[in-house]
Amino acid sequence: MTTTAVAFDQVSKAYGEVRAVDGLTLSLHPGQTVALLGPNGAGKSTTLDLLLGLKQADSGSVRLFGTSPREAIVAGRVGAMLQSGGLMDEVTVAEIVGLACDLHPKPYKASDVLARAGITQIADRKVNKLSGGQAQRVRFALATAGDSDLIVLDEPTTGMDVTTRQAFWATMREQADQGRTVLFATHYLEEADAVADRVLVLHRGRLLADGTAAEIKAKAGARRISFDLYETDIDETALRALPFLARLDVSGTTVRIQSSDADATVHALYGLGLYPRNLEVAGLGLEQAFVAITEAEEARTS
Amino acid sequence: MNSLIKLELNRALRNRKFLFFSVLYPSLLFLLIAGSADGTDKVDGTGLTLPTYMMVSMASFGALTAVLMGNSERIAKERESGWVRQLRLTTLPGRGYVLAKTASAAVVSLPSIIVVFVVAAAVKDVRLDAWQWLALTGAIWAGSLVFAALGVAIGYLASGDAVRPITMITYFGLSILGGLWMPTTTFPSWLQDIAKWVPTHAYAALGQAIEQSQAPHAKDIAVLAVFFALFTGGAAWLYRKDTLKA
């Protein structure tokens, strides 16, 4: 068994002038649960389409388990759930799941697939009569109809309620623990924070950050410091020169700082002879880290 | 792929509206048109009685309905909904989807042909030799593939709200111009000149030749072959374009 599940090498894809994916290089390994994050238009969907062979790259190579995406799919190594992927109308849930099992080279029993997706009760329901959350669970069943090594999920929990969402991620964790690679795109950052052991931040088709959620937070400036100063004391140049400063934001007399070493920054702050009031130091959530990273990149490139 | 054909078929057989229009409607139309005609009325220039002539027209019409109406709209809809994309993530070969659609349409078109024959024989006393019945069934069934290809092409060409009107215009245009509803001999001569080149006209002419105990005319076969090549070529081209766009 090869050790690389997914390998992108200098992959680019443009639509006219817009570079949706721009020289993307990454590799994913078995047993990893990987979150793909990025603002709208960052190239998440295009990346997944390229990965699954639904689109062809303009340049670079995409390999799944050392073969082309199509070959990997035909070998039954990939299960995928597309964002609002259409379903066949006017057939029952059991029929469409049965079809997915029939088409998979290493299928599970259809009744097990239904049970794991939590749709046994609605097996006789017509697919076009389902609620959004139910349809999403049917899509999940299609993605897990067989023993695939890589599971790709595009915005998988959209339309699910909290309980279903938790059950869903528990199932996904199980899959990863069995040595499968789980890759999911999401805009729920708390999901990525809680579930993924690796986070990829995509921005304008390029990889901005790649690491654990903790590493991403550290990269963004791990801590947020906020305090008030007397108006006469506000000197942006001096504040900007503080050590370990990742980001500075002054509004009125309130100063907000992101710092990769809050202790050193605060120490230096006192060193300037300033008397910060209402001093607060807090950790950064992944969401803020994500915003910080993409905004910094936005500022750098514009 | 067989499982997809099976599922497509199950779905088609559950769809009462579709079954009515493709299986029963041609027979009802046959009774309406041929019902009052007595068995000795001849259609100009064919030597066939009206019921015999209309039997082939309506069987062809029924097959046309089954293969054209079902496929074009479904393909367009499933392309848009993303079901086609989802299928591309399975082991199903690329053309498997189109083949499954065509195969299930062909299964529905067979009863629509046979029901017209049974009604014509039972109610209007149409009598032919055994080989003629078999040859008719085979020719009309095989000929319907030309229009199945057209249905696929329309499904990949049009999208959303456009697909239904385009299908309807094509469907009625082909039915009327091809003389499936009334013999083209009743048309003004300029329209007859056009109708001669319409694929449905050649399609019905296959069956009429068999009823006249003749081999089908080479020209009709050639017209159908050219249209078949055109429609499948178009469908294949549009399919590839759609796949790249995804």
TrEMBL record, chain B:
Q: How does it sit in the membrane?
A: Multi-pass membrane protein
Pfam families, alphabetically? ABC2_membrane_3
Where is this chain primarily localised? membrane
Keyword Coiled coil assigned: no
UniProt entry keywords in alphabetical sequence: Antibiotic resistance, Membrane, Transmembrane, Transmembrane helix
Transmembrane residues, as ranges? 53-70, 98-121, 133-157, 169-191, 221-239
Q: In what residue span(s) does the ABC-2 type transporter transmembrane domain sit? A: 50-236
- Subcellular localization(s) per the UniProt record: Membrane
Which InterPro entries does this entry report, sorted A to Z? ABC2_TM, ABC_2_transport, Nod_factor_ABC_transporter
Q: What is this protein called?
A: ABC transporter permease
Q: Which organism is it from?
A: Streptomyces justiciae
